Amino acid sequence: MTGQTMHFVAPEDFHQRARAALNDPKLRASFRGAMDFLQTKRSSQFPDASELEHLRDLGEAIRQHALANLPQLLVQLEEKLTAAGVHVHWAETGDEANEIILRIAQRRGARTVIKGKSMASEEIELNHYLGERGVECIESDMGEYIVQMAGEKPSHIVMPAIHKTREEIGTLFEQHIPGTTYSDDVDTLIQTGRRALRTAFAEADIGLSGVNFAAADTGTIWLVENEGNGRLSTTVPDVHIAIMGMEKVVAKLEHIVPLASLLTRSATGQPITTYFNLISGPRRDGELDGPREVHLVLLDNGRTQAYADEQLRATLQCIRCGACMNHCPVYARIGGHAYGTTYPGPIGKIISPHLLGLEATADLATASSLCGACGEVCPVRIPIPSLLVRLRTEANRNPHEQVAHPLKGQGAKFSRGDKLVWRFWSGAFSHPTVYKLFRWAATRFRTLTPSEQLGWTQHRAPLKPAPRSLADLMREKNQPE
């Protein structure tokens, strides 16, 4: 994988990439089928609506309790982990996190890092950073392994290579794995990837992972996975580095159980994942396996901006299940790469402005129909539609206006012309006489409106014909021959 070219994109080019995706029928059909499948899988795991709502209430309460006590819980987590022999590092920015990990690698003379799945490391572009400095990172999650081989970023936070066909994967393996012949058989492809990665686990100097949750009361890092690569990445190399967004902490170990149930059932429609990994420190005397050195990097990278605002703080409740993406009509039509951000879909639209600023991401908040599907399926009840409206407001706010908690890039879309239009619109609908005059003018000049409504008429899914009623069927039956 050394020397693999990465194809980085920027959220500022969202409209261009979305237009290209909408004009790709193969991509749209692939994503539509995948999202329908995932929606069905999720529904099958929650047959009891009352149980689901109770579990969502519990998940929301756990996440809100953790956020309400976040500073104290992070300090408690650090104390517990330090007492267990874990080295805890605080990183305010992505650059700081990268530098911390590089220093650990250089101190150990490391040349290779084997990685379990970690969206936080994708967020800070760790692979690219270390690769430029002579340390090779190898993704061990099969989906991440495939997109790394293709020089791409994940298109989904749970299923990174969901946009790839088996034929494309077969071609990639033939080109990049020595001695591999082309095959598009799924079992053959999986076995090929496993064989290539087994050697990487044994030879890596450092193992790196993400963190699903961390319990402050016990100092326990919790990882869920299906492939066993997370367990190998965190136990085979002598050094394990975990990188965690600071919002992933919870007060008690027992709080993780309902969150894990919501996560697995909402993400992939499984009652439970294959592996649950609980990490509480390095190898102890007398133990035969496990890392001899463990590090945890606590990452801010814009999260404190969301945390400072009472409404936007709800963004940090996310448990990264991807359910909002699976049910989003926009994501289903354009896929993940169109967004140009680490986190695509509805969750990406509300978290990316804090990570990257509104200058780069203002267009994402408007790429939503506000249908509410994302909020309805969120297992921890994040009010995504209302947060999108708030971010739109901040993007169009006067950049010089004084507010309690200004967002990075406030006013990125501010326009005096737009402000005048909306002021006129508000005035017209507030006064009956003006409204009647406006309505009269609108009916006389309707020929000036566009002949078609752009994306809606060009790219919407065709409506299914309404089922015929019993009365219609009876009338047809009684028609004379």
Structure characterization notes:
The strands form two sheets. The chain has a six-stranded parallel beta sheet with strand order 1-10-7-4-2-3, with helices on both faces. The protein has a four-stranded mixed beta sheet with strand order 8-5-6-9, sandwiched between helices. The chain is built from 23 helices and ten strands. It starts with 13 loop residues before the first helix and ends with a helix. It is of the alpha/beta class. Helix 9 packs across helix 10 and helix 17 (358-365) crosses helix 19 (384-395). The longest helix is centred in the N-terminal third of the chain and has 21 residues, at 25-45. The protein is globular. The protein has helices at residues 14-22, 25-45, 49-68, 70-83, 94-107, 119-123, 126-131, 142-149, 166-176, 186-203, 229-235, 256-267, 303-308, 323-326, 329-334, 345-356, 358-365, 373-377, 384-395, 416-430, 432-444, 455-459, 470-477; strands spanning 87-91, 112-115, 136-139, 206-209, 213-215, 220-225, 239-245, 249-250, 275-279, 293-299. It has two domains: 1-164 and 205-414, Rossmann fold (3-Layer(aba) Sandwich), CATH 3.40.50.10420; 431-477, no CATH class.
